[in-house]
Amino acid sequence: MTIKVFKSKNNINIRLTSERLNHILTNHPEIVEDIFFVEKVVEDPEYIFQG
């Protein structure tokens, strides 16, 4: 299930699914207080790695 859709720096839709959000919150508890950080990182990353 898609929770939110973000636009990447390259104007690509990035879907945040409930499964991915659960992974983020479980494995990165330091950002639970600032979940909007995820949106900021997707929309304006410091680095982009070629995949």
What would you note in describing this structure?
The protein has 51 residues and is of the alpha+beta class. The protein has one domain (2-43). The chain has two helices and two strands, in the order ββαα. A two-stranded antiparallel sheet has the order 1-2. β1 (2-7) and β2 form a beta hairpin. The termini are far apart.
Global mean pLDDT: 88
Low-confidence stretches: none
What structural category arises from helix and sheet content?
Answer: alpha+beta
What coarse outline follows from CA principal-axis ratios?
globular
Number of helices: 2
Distance between the termini: 24 Å
Number of domains: 1
Q: What can be said about the biggest beta sheet?
A: 2 strands, antiparallel
Counted beta strands: 2
Rg from Cα:
11 Å
Strand content: 15-25%
Helix residue percentage: 25-40%
- The topology string of helices and strands comes to EEHH
Strand order in the sheet with the most strands? 1-2
Comma- or semicolon-separated keywords:
alpha+beta; 2 helices; two-stranded antiparallel sheet
What's a quick, concise take on this entry?
This protein is α+β, with helices and mostly antiparallel strands and 51 residues long. It is built from two helices and two strands, in the order ββαα. It has one domain (2-43).
Task: Walk me through the topology.
Blueprint: E1 2-7, E2 13-17, H1 18-27, H2 36-43
Antiparallel strand pairs: 1-2
